[in-house]
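User: Teach me something about this protein's shape.
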Amino acid sequence: MRGLLVVDVQNDFCPGGALAVPEGDKVVPVINKLMDGFPVVVASKDWHPQETVHFQKWPVHCVHNTNGADFHPEIVSTKIEQVFLKGTGNKDDGYSAFEATNLDLAQYLRQKGVDELYVTGLATDYCVRASAIDAAKKGFKTCVVTDAIAAVNVHPGDDKKALEDMKKQGVELLSSKEVTNL
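Assistant: First, the predicted structure itself:
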């Protein structure tokens, strides 16, 4: 069975946010459309404490219970059946959705019968990359939906490097059109 993972489509990662991904909001309509084709839709959120070593590397973002940590207002969050919170400790980055501290994502997906995971969201070169690689390592057939992701690109080309890293780990890259035609 196929499952859809929506990674960190939160206000702080979208234009106007504390750690905005250029055109990060462009993934929202694609993700919303994809949600209708999946029996299981889950999402992750960065859910950082006020103070964490993570903020030594990055601007303060997605602090738990703030507007910045909320989903982008146009994401159809009613279609998300479970949210996995990551980066919740003072000493963890929480890049991968599989590092969630409130529930075990792999176990949850297996209990739902998911064996194919389609990954979308923000950001290609960090949390999407980490989540997709972890999904593949945990035995899920893993696909990243290329028009439903966007990159930070701290260094030019980080997005392309991330896609290559994912492919090397067995992650398939598909467009949303290819996914809906499967």
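Now, about its shape. The longest helix spans residues 124-137. The chain is about 25% helix and 20% strand. If you'd like, I can walk through any region in more detail.
User: That's plenty for now, thanks!
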